[in-house]
Write a structure and sequence with these properties.
alpha/beta; D-Maltodextrin-Binding Protein, domain 2; five-stranded mixed beta sheet; 9 helices; 13 strands
């Protein structure tokens, strides 16, 4: 009888400890700017969440939102811990609610840059001026791809007055329509074309280097979550470490080359970028 009681007490103690450990584990929610369809975001970013869960004592979960505006609201309403956003929305969330920049994503050269390119499937298109009167694809309003593409077009006289802009909510659909000729050209992130290595795009024009995507923290995200996230992500060195390179091989191009702390003048650079391009991001 005594032995039975002891066993029951031990089992009860183990069960209580297990329940306590699960409930005490801090939770953190991450979301990604919806430049892909939800199922593709789940496929490309679930491995990142798995890495965080295996490497930290925090329970990380991925949340997917239907629009950039929705994820912006989620950040400022503290429905998220951390979000991956493009440069315009990084500045917007910082300005609106004080969202904190944690890490800049690196490109394949190890720099905190991205480029926007205007591409076509038609090799006869030699310059932007050849696009007058054609159908041109733009990504979602208020995004860098939208604003930078529009400015490059406007600078050379291609506007709503002499051409037809087609706005896409899905980046892959935009690229598919460029490939099939449903639209004459489209503006996209250069890195988004890496998944189409078997197709020869006609690169009509490219932007200069622009600020890349950033991981930002919501205003109420705890210091513990922020520090743990930054430390864990900075450990990854896929450009110099073969093991890390293998780990991230199936991650999205945006986040598979490593990370850096935001430069000291980053906010001023983002502000200038925002003021230059934001007026081109709206749909008339």
């Amino acid at each position: 009888m005594r032995l039975t009681v002891i066993i029951l007490m031990i089992a009860s103690s183990l069960l209580t400890t297990s329940i306590y450990d699960v409930s005490a584990k801090e939770r953190a929610y991450i979301s990604i700017a919806p430049f892909y369809a939800p199922e593709k975001i789940w496929r490309l970013y679930s491995p990142l969440i798995d890495y965080l869960n295996k490497s930290t004592n925090i329970h990380w979960e991925l949340k997917v939102y239907p629009s950039h505006e929705a994820i912006e609201r989620a950040v400022c309403n503290n429905d998220l811990s951390i979000a991956l956003l493009g440069p315009l929305f990084v500045y917007r969330t910082h300005k609106e609610c004080g969202a904190e920049m944690l890490l800049a994503a690196l490109d394949e050269t190890g720099k905190e840059n991205l480029k926007i390119v205007i591409v076509s499937a038609d090799k006869r298109v030699r310059s932007i001026k050849d696009l007058v009167g054609q159908r041109i694809g733009l990504f979602k309003p208020y995004t860098a791809a939208h604003g930078v593409t529009k400015k490059m077009l406007f600078d050379e006289g291609v506007t709503e007055a002499n051409t037809k802009f087609v706005v896409y909510q899905n980046l892959e659909r935009l690229i598919d329509d460029v490939m099939t000729g449903a639209i004459k050209a489209g503006g996209v992130r250069e890195s988004s074309l890496k998944g189409y290595k078997n197709f020869s795009f006609n690169h009509i024009k490219a932007s200069g280097p622009l600020p890349n995507f950033f991981f930002v923290a919501s205003p109420d995200t705890s210091e513990g979550i922020k520090k743990t996230f930054v430390k864990t992500m900075l450990r990854l060195k896929p450009l110099s470490n073969e093991r890390d390179k293998r780990l991230v091989q199936n991650w999205d191009e945006v986040v598979k080359y490593g990370y850096a702390l935001p430069p000291k003048d980053c906010l001023q650079e983002l502000e200038g970028y925002y003021l230059l391009y934001y007026k081109f991001t709206r749909v008339n």
